[in-house]
Amino acid sequence: MLQVSVYRYNPETDKKPYMQDFEIDTKGKDIMVLDVLHLVKEKDNGMSYRRSCREGVCGSDGLNMNGKNGLACITPVSEVVKNNKLIIRPLPGLPVIRDLVVDMTLFYKQYERIKPFLINDTPEPAIERLQSPEEREKLDGLYECILCACCSTACPSFWWNPDKFVGPSGLLQAYRFLIDSRDTATKERLAELDDPFSVFRCHGIMNCVAVCPKGLNPTRAIGNIRSMLLNNAT
Amino acid sequence: MVTNITNFGRSGLADWLIQRVTAVIMLAYTLFLLGFFLMNGDLDFVTWKLLFQGTAMRIFSLLALLSIAAHAWIGLWTVATDYIKPTGLRVAFHLVVILALFAYVVWGVQVLWGA
Hints:
The structure holds two protein chains of two kinds.
Chain A: E1 2-8, E2 18-24, H1 33-43, E3 62-65, E4 68-71, H2 77-80, E5 85-89, E6 96-98, E7 101-102, H3 105-113, H4 133-137, H5 156-160, H6 167-178, H7 186-191, H8 207-211, H9 218-232
Chain B: H1 12-39, H2 45-53, H3 55-83, H4 87-114
């Protein structure tokens, strides 16, 4: 029997959050943490969490499992459980709506701020804007982000200033458009980032790299943005 | 873009670059002094005073002192904006830090050229 401790909070009935313990029978199999949550929900139907694709593509079930952020659906119990104990909490730093469900508004606001779409003011070609294979290669390791928020909610700089610091996820996407050969707004994008918070609140502790379920490297992208800012400055 | 009025270099990039350059200067000064102590095991007041009478050493010392001031301003500004959320309290903290650093610089100049 696996000892599972789940963060519970219902703002309508609870004065403050508490941890609830469950004993879960995994039938000796190394199941995913998301499967454990299903078994918990069978015991307590009111327990809330987000999930959708259950295969690490949609990014809905970002959770804090035994202290480390990750996607519950692709995290095997054996990877996080120590001493037969599994502690599941919502992503840190964001307001809790209920149980494991967090309010991602601030996270999405930062994403919106970096204008996550191609800006190109030249006349549209008849078919499509072409890229060389080398130009396309620069987007690898950037476009794969699924916005699960595991990285940004593992970042102390984002915890303290979620309204000012873009956060690792947003900055990875910012660099994805800065480096895109088809984008013509590079200077405007850089001008939006040249303050002490948006990019420079990153101190390179690499929590984001340690938790990214897609194996991406926001710290490297942030370093590249810094170099671009430096090369653009006088 | 976040508007800032109390940080050192007016832009994030300037602050970031200044903090790195001043760190290198402080490291160079520390290594120089360490080397000087190692080379002069039986250090006496005359040797110490002679070292600081040279113009080059005074320039180097003043540079290190200004580096400490700039580095501390940027570093403590960053810490304060992370942890002190009430604006009044935070600006008061910035002010105390900046005044203290200013006093250290003036005091340092007095020490360097007063001897």
